[in-house]
Amino acid sequence: MRKFDTKVQYLKYKVLREVARLSWNDTLYDNILDIPKNLVPGNEPTMRCCVYKERAILAERVKIAMGGDKNNPNVIEVIDIACDECPVGGYEVTNACRGCLAHRCEDVCKKGAITFDNNHVAHIDKSKCVECGACAKVCPYTAIVSRKRPCQSACKIKAISMNEQKAATINNDKCTACGACVDECPVAAISEKDGKAFIDKDACIECGACADACPVEAPKAEKLKITSEGSLSGSLLSFCMQLLI
């Protein structure tokens, strides 16, 4: 029995399995519109506010499984309609603030973004705050915290930002397609395109770690073969599709 660490992984697997099965039977384009409804039958939602939004997101995931946005060269894509669950917080003052006399947070803020109410509790003016984090560093109670979205926290090169609709966007000029944001997004709003694996043949030491990590055990079906371009061999990808089915 296949095991998945999260429901997100299982959801991605179900979509890829269905796309692979229909593609293998050469009936994908005849049944492509039915995939979301087959995966989310009935009228009771299991993940979102309603089945209609669940199906709409699954339809976008099907597109990504088939190659995604052809105008986007990045292998990592954001599903905009799925990216709406995380609050955009930035630095916030928690109830741990004791209204101390030192007011170090106010002194260190160069933008004058911190003020105090009648109870001496600090507040941050978001229109002035530049998210430098200086106030959080000097607070003796660690009462000021940075509430970043999981994808932003996962991206070490700061390639992810939020657009006007508060959905995540990826700067392709910075992104290295490491996939950290994909693993960390709790609502599966970020995904890889089409599932094709590529290996740097000069860097590969044939340790087999990729084979151990594959949820459908495709690389274990035969000896891993690498083409001159550094991609997995066609026979392996064909067997991968059979395992998905």
By DSSP (H or I, 4+ residues per run), the number of helices equals: 10
Major sheet: size, sense and barrel closure? Answer: 2 strands, antiparallel
Kindly report the spatial arrangement of strands forming the biggest sheet.
1-8
Report the mean per-residue pLDDT as an integer: 79
How many angstroms separate the termini? 14 Å
How large is the radius of gyration? 23 Å
Walkthrough of the structure:
By secondary structure, this protein is an alpha+beta fold. Among the domains are: 58 residues, Alpha-Beta Plaits, CATH 3.30.70; 50 residues, no CATH class. 32% of the residues lie in helices and 11% in strands. The protein contains 10 helices and 8 strands. The protein has a two-stranded antiparallel ribbon with strand order 1-8. A hairpin with a 5-residue loop joins strand 6 and strand 7. It is elongated, with a radius of gyration of 23 Å. The C terminus is likely disordered.
Q: How would you briefly describe this protein structure?
A:
With 245 residues, this protein is an alpha+beta fold.
Features:
alpha+beta, two-stranded antiparallel sheet, 8 strands, 10 helices, single chain, disordered C terminus, 32% helix, 245 residues, Alpha-Beta Plaits
